[in-house]
Design a protein that fits this description.
By secondary structure, the chain is an alpha/beta fold.
């Protein structure tokens, strides 16, 4: 295909002139400088100004484009050249070669009429779906997964078929070409023939609409006049597709291929078109591999190692001469967190996935709500900053809390037509009236919020299918309205909005006779943008995370590569399931060996330039799944492969056996401004402190709580509250002293049914129905236990009792006002004994001694002992009948379970409880609250986990609290 030109740099007047030839000319530019610098020098030295200005310089991608552009701009600024070539990426080159050039149009104007506009991806996917749905059921079954013939499955398969068509077109193939090879691919031949028929249907439909398929138009460009483009220079392009090769060979007069490396070695690695030769590369081991490569246990250990490498090269990081390469996406999050501890952001040079942008998440929340129409999806939607800000601007304060409160109370299976008011029948009259008013106000706010959303969305908020043009117009109006608030303007002013605008324009191309539900249209847009990226904007100092293919154009002196594992390097194939690796190789499509060769070559180029390359691999993934070492480690001869195998399987270094925690500690507990004075505490605040001082301070003192919209059933607290409401109503009823188990059971059955209808209505979630049935089962056991308790002479004296005046107590050296409410106070009519009881609905059924601790050890709870302080105004009862018993009245899980369980603490135990409570007051007031215990948030409250630093930087999950006081018997 022509002779190689391997003249060394720098070029001078003695270099032979470039002579036109029909074949591409390869030029190996050496490794004595940065590749973009070498390319710029070659262009200036080898091409006269007029030729340079008319040349098309083609680069592998956007990153390489930016690198060469920067060098050329610097040259122009320094006055070395005024000529400027046309810089293109490979994808742009294929499209340009598919169009007639200006001279051709001047000579043959009729060519302009032959150029049909390109159909957008949305329209092409739609036509593929239409073609798929037009097939008979038996034929369609060959293309769809078994038992998956649904609209969603058809849309998904159609998108995959469209992508398959694009892959084949790049190799100048279609379904018929593959079907002709059916002898070598077995029973898939019939399926390929069917695919070829679908291709013809889609192309025919597009042509009838005056549109063209971009991939097919590149193939048709081969029919355009030959030799129309004067000169194309391919720079670092090592994967010229068969179709692009034919386009270049037919349409371009002169083709130069510029590659890094010395000609004596590099020539054998590339074919005449610069494509890599996998077999030749496999014989080249990475230089000094064992010295550059470290094996680790898991992603966290790899991230720690990268942080140590960054710490060892501060001057390179400060000058942007150190870059990261993270082919394994699992590593991005842990590496990002660790870099933040050194003041670095991580900038993905390939761009941020569009689907992770705030705009994409906002649209996904809208789609999910339009699909589900549930209270949960509505709560997720109003949490989106743009929607929340818009609601506020409409005079509706945040709907998040009202929605969460409504869902916690009612747990509806779907979004209710009429927002149900929650009427509390228990409590004091003033408190009950306040709660009723709050419930009514919440219902009004939620109705107004739903109506406002419907007004905002217009026809886009309805379920009825409509033409895409009509839906896009409604969506545009809604987004424009959201832009009137600051959060919406920020959302739609970012780089992700450009991608959305492109898709909306494509959606407007969809045929008017086709109708879509709004959620389906959003789903199509999401699928079309699944692989799209947007520019990642970071604040402050950043380290770039480059793709492996970008290393040849990078100016970095040090490269830290983590994820040196199979499946990441080389990347796992994402091609259609009909294109196994062997068939790809046979058809000339990219395959695993080719991808491996591309990554191998990129690393070799960096090493030959003298880059300080460090490789890190892992043995396990994030979920503990085993990983294999990259095949690139075993390139070279047998001795090299054996040495690499020993390294991969060797015992891990000590630093990984006990991973070093980054030198950062969880943040000091936050206190915004001055800490509030602690003048009173509830009896349950002490229990919260013993579980976790930090969580107690955040939730109980600062009154900060996370929001959760994920509940679909009653959690432990909601289940207990429901039971407590029924038990409180019972304690105020005429049957409270009855010893008739049948009468009590009937009362609870009726009360539970009334509560169910009032709170949950007919739209209760299935899980809640099961829980209510379980509660009814327990109340039946409680009715029998209560009847036996009453038969023994016990009477309910008080329910939900609280002091009528403030209770100020001295605990140790601390004086504090004590608050609380006792579920139940019982008095025995025969003996005069009395007891303070707390209802328990949990699964454990533990006794007070086990639940609270205190006997011969540290206290875990103090609620029951502090009840004794709370009932100070009942001292007359104590003088008459002695100290009350303390205990639980448990809702039994079975008839054999014990219902009333009393504590067995003595006076010494209770004195120790008072001293422990005093120490808690002292520590809260002194701000000794940093310890993290076994509080609820350790498992299920991401807001509080983030506030406490858990999960952000690694390290131990909890800290030991240590005893507040010496053990009771010490």
């Amino acid at each position: 295909m022509g002779n190689d030109t391997t003249a060394p740099l720098p070029f001078d007047s003695s270099d032979p002139p470039v002579n036109p030839t029909d074949g591409p000319q390869r030029h190996f530019l050496g490794c004595d400088d940065l590749f973009p610098q070498l390319v710029a020098r070659w262009l200036r030295e080898q091409l006269p100004a007029d030729e340079l200005a008319g040349a098309w310089v083609v680069l592998p991608g956007a990153r390489a484009h930016a690198a060469l552009l920067s060098v050329l701009q610097t040259g122009v600024a320094e006055g070395s050249s005024d000529a400027w070539p046309e810089l293109l990426t490979v994808g742009q080159l294929g499209d340009l070669l598919a169009r007639p050039t200006l001279p051709e149009l001047v000579r043959e104007p009729e060519l302009a009429t032959q150029i049909a506009p390109v159909a957008g991806r949305l329209l092409r996917s739609h036509e593929w779906q239409r073609a798929l749905e037009s097939l008979p059921d038996a034929a369609r079954a060959l293309l769809l997964p078994e038992q998956a013939d649904s609209p969603g499955a058809r849309r998904s398969v159609a998108a995959k078929l469209r992508a398959l068509h694009a892959d084949l077109a790049a190799a100048d193939l279609d379904g018929t070409d593959v079907a002709e090879a059916r002898d070598s691919i077995g029973p898939d031949g019939e399926r390929w023939l069917l695919f070829a028929d679908l291709q013809r249907r889609v192309l025919r439909e597009l042509a009838s609409a005056g549109l063209s398929d971009p991939h097919e138009r590149r193939r048709q460009s081969l029919d355009l006049p030959a030799r129309a483009v004067p000169r194309v220079v391919l720079v670092g392009v090592v994967d010229v597709s068969p179709l692009l090769e034919r386009q270049l060979a037919r349409r371009v007069e002169r083709i130069d291929i510029l590659l890094p490396g010395e000609s004596a070695r590099a020539a054998e690695l590339h074919d005449a078109w610069g494509r890599l030769q996998p077999e030749a590369l496999a014989a080249h081991a990475l230089p000094e591999l064992l010295e550059r490569w470290t094996v680790h246990e898991n992603p966290a250990a790899q991230a720690d190692a990268l942080l140590r490498e960054v710490d060892a090269r501060p001057e390179l990081a400060a000058r942007d001469e150190l870059v990261l390469c993270l082919p394994d996406r699992e590593l991005h999050a842990p590496v990002r967190r660790r870099l933040s501890t050194r003041g670095f952001a991580l900038r993905d040079a390939g761009g941020r996935p569009w689907r992770r942008s705030p705009l994409a998440r906002c649209l996904a929340a809208l789609r999910e709500h339009l699909e589900r129409r549930s209270a949960a999806s509505f709560a997720a939607l109003v949490r989106q900053p743009a929607f929340e800000a818009w609601f506020r601007a409409r005079g509706l304060s945040s709907l998040v809390r009202p929605l969460d409160a409504y869902r916690e109370a009612h747990l509806p299976a779907s979004l209710p037509r009429h927002w149900r008011e929650l009427v509390h029948e228990t409590g004091e009259d003033a408190s009950r009236a306040r709660r009723v008013d709050e419930s009514k106000a919440r219902a009004r706010a939620l109705k107004a919020g739903r109506d406002a959303l419907g007004e905002l969305l217009g026809v886009f908020g309805r379920d009825a299918p409509r033409p895409a043009v009509e839906l896009v117009a409604a969506l545009r109006r809604a987004l424009a309205t959201l832009c009137t608030c600051e959060a919406g303007a920020e959302l739609l002013g970012g780089p992700a909005a450009g991608r959305l605008r492109e898709m909306l324009e494509q959606a407007e191309e969809l045929p008017s006779h086709a109708s879509f539900a709004p959620a389906e249209l959003l789903q199509r847009i999401e699928e079309a943008l699944a692989d799209a990226t947007v520019e990642e904007r970071v604040q402050g100092t950043a380290l770039d995370a480059l793709g492996v293919g970008d290393l040849a154009f990078s100016s970095a002196r040090a490269v830290l590569l983590a994820g040196f594992n199979e499946g990441s390097l080389p990347a796992m194939s994402r091609r259609h399931a009909w294109l196994p690796d062997g068939l790809c190789q046979e058809l000339g499509l990219p395959h695993t060996a080719a991808r491996s060769a591309r990554d191998h070559w990129a690393l070799l180029c960096a090493l030959e330039r003298g880059v300080d390359l460090r490789l890190h691999s892992g043995r396990q993934g994030r979920e503990g799944d085993p990983l294999r070492t990259s095949r690139l480690a075993f390139a070279g001869d047998d001795a090299q492969a054996l040495a690499a195998a020993h390294r991969a399987l060797a015992p891990l270094p000590a630093v990984d056996a006990a991973p070093e925690t980054p030198s950062v500690t969880p943040p000091t507990p936050l206190v915004a401004g001055s800490a509030p004075e602690i003048e009173s505490l509830s009896v349950t605040d002490f229990d919260a402190f013993l579980a976790s001082p930090y969580q107690c301070y955040v939730e109980r003192i600062l009154r900060r709580r996370g929001q959760d919209d994920s509940a679909h059933e009653l959690d432990g607290g909601a289940f207990g509250s429901l039971a407590h409401e029924l038990l409180e109503n019972f304690g105020r009823s005429e049957l409270r002293d009855s010893s008739d188990p049948e009468a009590l059971t009937a009362w609870f059955d009726e009360a539970l049914e009334q509560l169910r209808a009032r709170r949950f209505g007919a739209e209760v979630a299935p899980a809640v129905s099961v829980q209510l049935h379980q509660l009814g089962w327990r109340l039946g056991h409680f009715a029998r236990a209560q009847a036996a308790h009453a038969a023994a002479g016990w009477r309910i004296a008080h329910v939900e009792w609280k002091p009528t005046r403030p209770v100020v107590v001295r605990l140790g050296n601390e004086q504090i006002a004590l608050r609380g409410r006792i579920d139940r106070i019982d008095v025995n009519a025969s003996t005069g004994e009395w007891m303070l009881l707390d209802y328990k609905t949990g699964e454990s059924g533990d006794s007070p001694d086990k639940d609270h601790g205190g006997k011969r050890g540290a206290w875990k709870k103090l609620q029951l002992p502090l009840y004794l302080e709370l009932v100070a105004e009942l001292d007359s009862e104590r003088e008459r009948f002695g100290d009350p018993a303390l205990g639980y009245f448990v809702l039994p899980k079975s008839a054999a379970s014990k219902a009333v369980m009393l504590a067995k603490w003595n006076a010494e135990d209770l004195a120790h409880a008072r001293a422990t409570a005093g120490e808690i007051v002292r520590r809260l007031r002194a701000g000794e609250i940093a310890a993290l215990g076994a509080g609820r948030f350790l498992a299920d409250d991401p807001s509080l986990r983030a506030l406490s630093g858990l999960g952000l930087v690694g390290g131990p999950r909890t800290r030991s609290l240590g005893p507040l006081l010496p053990e009771a018997d010490a």
